Each structure stands twice: as C-alpha cells, then as structure tokens.
Amino acid sequence: MTQSFTDRRSFVLGMAGLAGTAALGLPRTARAATPAMISEAIHLGLYMPLYAAMNGGFFEKHGLTPDLKTAGGIAQPVPALLSNAADFAVTGTGMSINATVEGAQMVNIAKIAGMISVWVVAKQGTSFNGPEDFAGKTIATLKFPSNTYTTPFYAMQKAGMDPEADVTWLQLPFGAQLQAVADGRADFATVFEWDASIGATQFDLEVVYSLGEALGPAVFSSTFVTKDFLDANPDAVQAYCNAIAEAEKQLHEDEQVFVDVATKEFPQVDPAVIAAARARFFGDVPLVPRNPVITEQEWRTLVEHEAGAGTLRADLPYEQMVDSSFAEKASQEFGLA
C-alpha cells in the first residue's frame, strides 16, 4: 500500500492545526523550578537518556522534581506545553518546527536521540548494501508518519530512486512487520528497537542495515520548551540539561546502566532482547548521545530528512530553533566530549 503525497500533506496540515489551536491558550507564565513536568510522546527505548536521568536521581540532584507523563503520540507534547500542562517536551524534533511555523515559538535545548533509529531486518543470509537494494521489493513498515516509513522513503530519494514506484509498501499495525518478513509477505521490515532485536532473537531474522548510521548523526529526538518558559525559567532549563548530560555520560561509561534502566522501564521486553539491542544504541553513530549538545550539522541532517519525507511545514534555521548554551555548559561541567 503506497502513501500518497496528498496524505502526507494532510498529515502536516493537520499537525499545524493542532499546534495552532493549542497556541490560542493563555501565554506561558513563569513557574517555580520544581516540579518539572515532562511530556514524552510515547514510552520508547530511544528516550533512554530521559529514563536514565530519572532512575539515577539526576533531576533531583540538580533541583528538579520530575513528573513524566506519556502523551500518546509524537504531536501531543506540543499542546501539552502550550496549555501549561508540561514544561519540557520530549518527542521528534520536527514537531518543534511545525509548531513554531504556526506561531508557537519552540526552542530545542537538549539532544535525546542522536541518530535516526531505523534498521532494516530481513531473513538470514539476505544481502543488503544500501537503499538501492529496496528496488522491486516489498517493505513492511508502520503507518505513515512513522519513521519506519519516512526514513526508507527519504533514503531512497537520496539514492535517486522513486519510492512511490520502485517498491511496494506494506503499512501494518504495531508488532506486525516482523511476522510479515518471517512468513514471506515482505522482503524487508524497517523497524525501531526493540523490534530489531526481537527480530534477531525471536523470529530468526537478521538486522542487515542501519539507515540511521548511513544518514549520519542527527537530532532525531530532542527536548524543547516554549521560548516564554525558557526566558522565565533559565535555571530550570539548566538543571534539566545537567541531568540529561549526567545520564548520557553514565550510559556510555557503565554498560550495566543501560540494561538496568531498560529492564525497569520495559518489563515486557525479554532480557535477551535488551542485551542484543545495546550494541545498536552505542554504535559508530550512537543513538544514545555522548552529550546533549545539538550541533548545526545534526540539525541539518534531521531537517533534510523530515522535509524529504514530507512531514515538515518549513525549513527554519538552526539559530532560531536551537539554544545549545545550556547543554554546552552542562557538557563542560561533566567533562563530556
């Protein structure tokens, strides 16, 4: 099943309407530094630095009492910020841009996921050297706008292919992509973790390629706040970045921290899956960042990806959308590269 350009445009416009409606609420007012209300899009493994900061007590160490709520979708943290139901949003970075286009100025302050975390899974022994190998094949994905769809779509565009015509898309509900490869309905599945490691440990499949590593470092997920909140609460923003920086340092220095946090946060995931996944979180282009600083190159990689996939309303500049001063200060304090 192929996702049309019209459908992608409808999604982007719908997102804009959601942000615009929320922006009609009362202006953001200053709030005491604690508690810190955090809205995450979905409870996902790629938000590991957030969970490590919470489990390690780093927010409390820096003067914040975190209150984490799962919003239920990548767009939902935006209205949570604008209705004063949250101080910090943790979701796909592109959501900050779409909201800002509608007049709700967002500022990205910390990198949470440093790679576009999509892997290609296939039957054992399948050769796959790059997006060109998708040609003529069937790809099992989640439904648009999931990055399991948009990332291979963009990668094929970059490779000079026509993703609308050159492949067959099989858009499926959560949990169904691996079975589609196992039973032969699809040649490949493009998946997040934990699904990549579930495929390897439970379906006798093989992780044959990392689309994210091929695309390079990117601020795939970030923490952003409203500009009003940033201006009124710089100490809270600094404390938040300190907590994330400490967590990211700890995750890279102690392998057991990842296992312990993942096991606690995702008790439904088999420990063998968590063990298999760790290497993909800390690869050559690490999904868990070494520090929370958002670089201009990481911003450009993400924006070009989202624009190519049709989920972005505009290309807003790094200087407008990112304030890395807090993350830089935190990284210097904790000796992070």
From TrEMBL:
UniProt-annotated location(s): Periplasm
Keyword Signal: yes
Alphabetical list of Pfam families matching this protein: NMT1 (PF09084)
One GO cellular component term: periplasmic space
This protein's UniProt keywords: Signal
Location of the SsuA/THI5-like domain: 48-253
InterPro entries tied to this protein: SsuA/THI5, TAT_signal
UniProt similarity note: Belongs to the bacterial solute-binding protein SsuA/TauA family.
Protein name: NitT/TauT family transport system substrate-binding protein
Organism (species): Tropicimonas sediminicola
